[in-house]
Every structure is written in C-alpha cells, then in structure tokens.
C-alpha cells in the first residue's frame, strides 16, 4: 500500500468516527423507552391459589397488563400430582376494559370431573393472555395451593 493510499484510508476512518459521534450526540442519551413504546401486554401467575369446595376448584390470582382501551382473554390451566394421579383443570375470564396498568384478576379453575380433586401443596400453573394486540403472552410456574 502506498503512502498516499494509507493516508486516504486513515482520513476515511477519522471521517467515519466523526460522523458517528455527530449522530450519537443528536440522540438523547436518557430517552425513556417505556414512554416511547408502551407495553402491549403481559401476564404473571401469582401464588398461593385458594382451595375451594374441598378441592373441586381453586381460585388462581393472576396479574395482567393489556393495551389501554382494549380487551383481553385470560386463560389458566393448573396440574397437580395427587398420589399416583393428576388433578387438572382450567378456567378463563375476559378483561373488558384494559387500563394499560397491572390488573389483579382471580380465575376459578375447576377440577376435571373425571379427575382428582385439588389439595393443598405444590402445583404447576400456566396462564395465557390473548387479545386484539400482538401476543399471546404466557407465564408458567410452580404455585402453592393453600386452604
């Protein structure tokens, strides 16, 4: 590489760095992304669930966030080992007017008719949030079932 070509390459590199610095200084460094692009949705299964009617059902607390002015469907499924069998059930509800903030929802999950009743102890829960917005949003976790 000749002296002139090396000097030209060095000049181009310096110009590229300077141009990058100008662009970077024009973008606010403390931009709050959450206010620029609000969350569309989210869901979290909470614990403990509350045993109802001798294990025929449980009430599962869920925290949901959905797009303001929209609606959403919340579905919950719970499975629990009871001896050598499984107690399982599902439940759902609709949030009619989403606020864009956390909403506490209680879902009644009925044990399947042909299955076992729920009991106190550990169980596995999954929740899904659907609506007329990008998604679905899901959460899966172990929960506790209490009296």
Care to describe what's here?
- The protein is an alpha+beta fold.
- The protein folds into 2 domains: 3-31; 41-146, Immunoglobulin-like (Sandwich), CATH 2.60.40.
- It is built from 2 helices and 8 strands.
- The protein has helices at 3-26, 33-36, and strands spanning 41-45, 49-52, 57-66, 72-82, 85-95, 103-111, 121-130, 137-146.
- The chain has a 7-stranded mixed beta barrel with strand order 2-3-6-5-4-7-8.
- A hairpin with a 6-residue loop joins strand 7 and strand 8 (137-146).
- The radius of gyration is 26 Å and the shape is elongated.
- The model is unreliable at 18-37 (pLDDT under 50).
CATH homologous superfamily title of the largest domain: Immunoglobulins
CATH architecture of the largest domain: Sandwich
SSE order, one letter for each helix or strand: HHEEEEEEEE
Biggest sheet features: 7 strands, mixed, barrel
Task: List low-confidence stretches.
Answer: 18-37
Radius of gyration: 26 Å
Query: Strand arrangement, largest sheet?
Result: 2-3-6-5-4-7-8
* Mean pLDDT level: 84
Number of domains: 2
The name CATH uses for the topology of the largest domain is Immunoglobulin-like
Protein name: Secreted protein
Keywords: Signal
Signal peptide: 1-26
